Amino acid sequence: MKITHKAYHLALKYPFTIAKFSRTSTPIILLEINYEGYTGLGEASMVPYMGESVETANSFLKKVDLSHFTFPFNMEEIIAYLDSLESGVPAIKAAIDIALHDLTGKILNNPCYQLFGADKHLMPPTTFTIGIDSPEIIIKKVNDALADDFKLLKIKLGRDTDQLLIKTIREVTQLPLYVDANQGWTDKHQGLEMAHWLNEQGVLLIEQPMPKEDIDGNAWLTERSPIPTVGDEAVQRLPDVAKAKGVYHGINIKLMKSAGMYEAAEMIKAAKKNDLKVLIGCMSETSVATLAGLALAPLCDWADLDGPFLTANNPYLTPEFKNGKYVLSDNAGLGVLMK
Ligand code: MG
């Protein structure tokens, strides 16, 4: 079993601004695992605010040696091993996990979604994300999303221009919206007022309304909000799921936070046990990580897997997208196709 990898500079179609950051590209690692003639593909997307980089990924990969696993597909064991090498660095762990799932699918001649018992016909619609921008750019992005056949938009909020942003979008489209405050709201009473206003504007969910540390504030808002709240920054890995109960209505799972598909699937099960809804999200990613998220998306309530639509140099063919939803193929593994 041999791991090879290369760094890749994933350019964004538009500079991306959220409540606390702005950037024009994302460093990613594209990884391959070769095993008995099969090749599994993986990806780590290392958005700067998560603390990983090409350097941290390289230094982690130097420690990884899968050769002592006689059966290198017991993912619980593999993830425990990766965690034992170093805490943190979930994105590069996800790259290994994703490649091993792609390999497993290829060896078994099964699409990855079937490995998780997902029904591809239950694919939720995915959102197209719009960052904080000038009204002209926002209108251009909304028109791009409509041209790409999106039926749902996700709007980044969390600054003092929130209402203006929503009003700008409503001049162009009446599509349902998700919003993400990215911890930008600091007053729960103002947050509740905003939640009621957003409800009247056709907003269906609010992601990470208040800072993740403000557990009481988020719980207070969740109890009263007319729209479901979803914890994102507050929920990284499996132990965070149970802590979200009573604080949010749902959680946002991203493979780059969960250390990959195995733990994401465990988090989905834990969410269901705790009566939490699940949004499956993404970072700036190519089709590799997006397809990994899509294999689990039919098990989730909501999806935000727009990576390939927001990036300018995705080396792979984007999975088929029709009427606001991705359509999964029956190809073995993730189904990644080169351009
Ligand atoms: Mg978010």
List the helices and strands in order. Answer: EEEHHHHEHEHEHEHEHEHHEHEHEEEE
Number of helices: 13
In CATH, the architecture of the largest domain is Alpha-Beta Barrel
CATH top level class name of the largest domain: Alpha Beta
CATH-defined fold name of the largest domain: TIM Barrel
Number of strands: 15
Bound molecule kinds, no repeats: magnesium ion
The CATH homologous superfamily name of the largest domain equals: Enolase-like C-terminal domain
Strand pairing plus helix content: what structural class? alpha/beta
Question: What is the radius of gyration computed over CA atoms, rounded to a whole number of angstroms?
Answer: 19 Å
Strand order of the largest sheet: 4-5-6-7-8-9-10-11
In total, how many domains does the architecture comprise? 2
- Main sheet makeup: 8 strands, parallel
Span from first to last CA?
Answer: 26 Å
Q: List segments where confidence is low: pLDDT < 50 over at least 5 consecutive residues.
A: none
Provide the β-strand percentage band: 15-25%
Structure explained in plain terms:
By secondary structure, the chain is α/β, with parallel strands linked by helices. The protein has 2 domains: 109 residues, 2-Layer Sandwich (Enolase-like, domain 1); 213 residues, TIM Barrel, CATH 3.20.20.120. The chain is 38% helix and 23% strand. The strands form 4 sheets. An 8-stranded parallel β-sheet has the order 4-5-6-7-8-9-10-11. Helix 6 links the parallel strand 5 and strand 6. Helix 5 crosses helix 6 and helix 7 runs parallel beside helix 8. The two termini are 26 Å apart. The model has no long low-confidence stretch (mean pLDDT 95). It binds magnesium ion. The site of magnesium ion has 6 residues, from loops. The site of magnesium ion (MG) has 6 residues, from loops.
